[in-house]
Design brief:
This protein has four helices and eight strands. It is α+β, with helices and mostly antiparallel strands. A hairpin with a 7-residue loop joins β4 and β5.
């Protein structure tokens, strides 16, 4: 419940348009033109670049699709989960959107008998796994 609230607040902040800001890309979410700063926040949460276009986003569950098409194309953060499956160059896993998610991943490794530590390094939440 708390994680859904945090996600909704983060997404809500990301989709608010700032009409005074100049736009370098045209990305519309739920009918709102995103400022470059809002788009950057949304891309960080999604872990991927968002192409120009018009999208809908369900703030309750993170489902998204193309405006005018009710078909769900994915969930906000899907690229984060895919990237997290393979370790980074330094052996860590992540980034994850929240410390809670990093701890969940770490607990999965611990259940396999491995040592895992969740941490924040200044740009995201990560997990380091060792034997």
């Amino acid at each position: 419940m708390r994680s859904q609230l945090v996600l909704a607040l983060l997404i809500g902040a990301a989709v608010r348009a700032d009409p005074a800001a100049a736009q370098s890309r045209i990305v519309i979410v739920n009918g709102q033109l995103l400022s470059d700063a809002s788009l950057a926040k949304l891309e960080q949460t999604h872990c991927a670049r968002i192409p120009e276009g018009s999208y809908w986003l369900n703030l309750q569950n993170g489902a998204w699709g193309y405006a005018g098409n009710p078909q769900v194309q994915g969930r906000l953060g899907d690229p984060c989960r895919a990237a997290a499956a393979a370790p980074n160059r330094d052996g860590t896993h992540g980034p994850y959107a929240t410390m809670r998610r990093a701890e969940e991943v770490a607990n999965g490794y611990r259940a396999q008998g491995l040592r895992a530590v969740a941490f924040h390094n200044g740009d995201g939440y990560y997990v380091r796994v060792s034997r």
